[in-house]
């Protein structure tokens, strides 16, 4: 059957900086599909990810690999063959846990496959020789990555409520009255929510800047903390070595005192940094709460805009009905004027007939 995808998810892909071996370098501009592949012919599991036509992850799973969760949404593993460390940033903790479970499962399967292969070699007692193309990777296309992607979600359609139609007996309003009522109501609501949105955007920008600065400070302090710990361990080892040298007991004692003071200062510095990290974590939590409030107000603003659109539709319908009523009234006035003109003519004719009959009576 060749190589087939057996599990897929989406994540942001990173690699360790080959120069510093500390900083992460993003290899994808957005979340991409990351898939587990199984090659049944060679009994090999691989992790593969493509960004367009470029392979940004091509890692063969071995029994000695370990997938480490470094945070709630980030995990990493080292690939000795590629001489690098891969990192994945997921959208949720659930997706990270699912990927880690699959990693452990396929790692165990790779270990069992290796043991079975070794048992076969021992039973046959003949050295197995790998083919020259054994380590070549099978060609992949972006379409082959779309395996069992557990990130896909069904589309949700929202049915809008039917709009209430005006009754047939609604009184006609003039254009000016309707326009004043609608625009005064709409402008008041729009100004209020626009002010709220502008305030929230300003707060969001400030909180985002503070969050980025806090995150950068936390990373820097973590690096300093690791450096302090390494320095403390080195100093402890140096103290032990100096204590073993009996010929320099006085110098060792003095140096030991200085080193102990240095260690105490470093420990106090570490405590201060840990307290600062806790404070920054609280600020990050507060920023997240404010972000949730902003999202809630944005949703309310969208609902008000939808309601305004409904009111505009009702206003358009009323204007059409008003125009139709005015046209009917104008036609009625024209018809009535025509009837009055005909009636005036008939009255004039009757008057002449009456005068003629009176003259005839007088003549007779």
Automatic annotation (TrEMBL):
<dbReference type="Pfam" id="PF00568">
    <property type="entry name" value="WH1"/>
</dbReference>
<feature type="compositionally biased region" description="Polar residues">
    <location>
        <begin position="138"/>
        <end position="147"/>
    </location>
</feature>
<feature type="region of interest" description="Disordered">
    <location>
        <begin position="114"/>
        <end position="171"/>
    </location>
</feature>
<feature type="domain" description="WH1">
    <location>
        <begin position="1"/>
        <end position="110"/>
    </location>
</feature>
<dbReference type="GO" id="GO:0014069">
    <property type="term" value="C:postsynaptic density"/>
</dbReference>
<comment type="similarity">
    <text>Belongs to the Homer family.</text>
</comment>
<keyword id="KW-0175">Coiled coil</keyword>
<keyword id="KW-0966">Cell projection</keyword>
<feature type="compositionally biased region" description="Polar residues">
    <location>
        <begin position="155"/>
        <end position="171"/>
    </location>
</feature>
<keyword id="KW-0007">Acetylation</keyword>
<keyword id="KW-0963">Cytoplasm</keyword>
<dbReference type="InterPro" id="IPR045027">
    <property type="entry name" value="Homer"/>
</dbReference>
<dbReference type="GO" id="GO:0007216">
    <property type="term" value="P:G protein-coupled glutamate receptor signaling pathway"/>
</dbReference>
<dbReference type="InterPro" id="IPR011993">
    <property type="entry name" value="PH-like_dom_sf"/>
</dbReference>
<keyword id="KW-0597">Phosphoprotein</keyword>
<dbReference type="GO" id="GO:0035256">
    <property type="term" value="F:G protein-coupled glutamate receptor binding"/>
</dbReference>
<dbReference type="GO" id="GO:0005829">
    <property type="term" value="C:cytosol"/>
</dbReference>
<feature type="coiled-coil region">
    <location>
        <begin position="211"/>
        <end position="342"/>
    </location>
</feature>
<dbReference type="InterPro" id="IPR044100">
    <property type="entry name" value="Homer_EVH1"/>
</dbReference>
<keyword id="KW-0770">Synapse</keyword>
<dbReference type="InterPro" id="IPR000697">
    <property type="entry name" value="WH1/EVH1_dom"/>
</dbReference>
<dbReference type="GO" id="GO:0043197">
    <property type="term" value="C:dendritic spine"/>
</dbReference>
<protein>
    <recommendedName>
        <fullName>Homer protein homolog 1</fullName>
    </recommendedName>
</protein>
């Amino acid at each position: 059957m060749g190589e087939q995808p057996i599990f897929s998810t989406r994540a942001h892909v990173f690699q360790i900086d080959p120069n510093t071996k500390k900083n992460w370098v993003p290899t994808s501009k957005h979340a991409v599909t990351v898939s587990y592949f199984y090659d049944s012919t060679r009994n090999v599991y691989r992790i593969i990810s493509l960004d367009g036509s470029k392979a940004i992850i091509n890692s063969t799973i071995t029994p000695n690999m370990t997938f480490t969760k470094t945070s709630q949404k980030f995990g990493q593993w080292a690939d000795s063959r590629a001489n690098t460390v891969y990192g994945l940033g997921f959208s949720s903790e659930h997706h990270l846990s699912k990927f880690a479970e699959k990693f452990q499962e396929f790692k165990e399967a790779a270990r069992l496959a290796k043991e079975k292969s070794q048992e076969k070699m021992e039973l046959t007692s003949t050295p197995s020789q790998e083919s020259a193309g054994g380590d070549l990777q099978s060609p992949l296309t972006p379409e082959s990555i779309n395996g069992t992607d557990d990130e896909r979600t069904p589309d949700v359609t929202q049915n809008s409520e039917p709009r209430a139609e005006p009754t047939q007996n609604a009184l006609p309003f003039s254009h000016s009255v309707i326009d004043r009522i609608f625009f005064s109501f709409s402008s008041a609501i729009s100004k209020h929510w626009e002010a709220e949105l502008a305030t929230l955007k300003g707060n969001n920008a400030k909180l985002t800047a503070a969050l980025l600065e806090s995150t950068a400070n936390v990373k820097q302090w973590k690096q300093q903390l690791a450096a302090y710990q390494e320095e403390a361990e080195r100093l402890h080892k140096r103290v032990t070595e100096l204590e073993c040298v009996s010929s320099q007991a006085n110098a060792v004692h003095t140096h030991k005192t200085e080193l102990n003071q240095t260690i105490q200062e470093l420990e106090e510095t570490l405590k201060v940094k840990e307290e600062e990290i806790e404070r920054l974590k609280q600020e990050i939590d507060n920023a997240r709460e404010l972000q949730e409030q902003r999202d809630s107000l944005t949703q309310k603003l969208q609902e008000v805009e939808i309601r305004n659109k409904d009111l505009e539709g009702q206003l358009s319908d009323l204007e059409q009905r008003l125009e139709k009523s005015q046209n009917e009234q104008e036609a009625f006035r024209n018809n009535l004027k025509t009837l009055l003109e005909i009636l005036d003519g008939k009255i004039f004719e009757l008057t002449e007939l009456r005068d003629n009959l009176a003259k005839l009576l007088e003549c007779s």
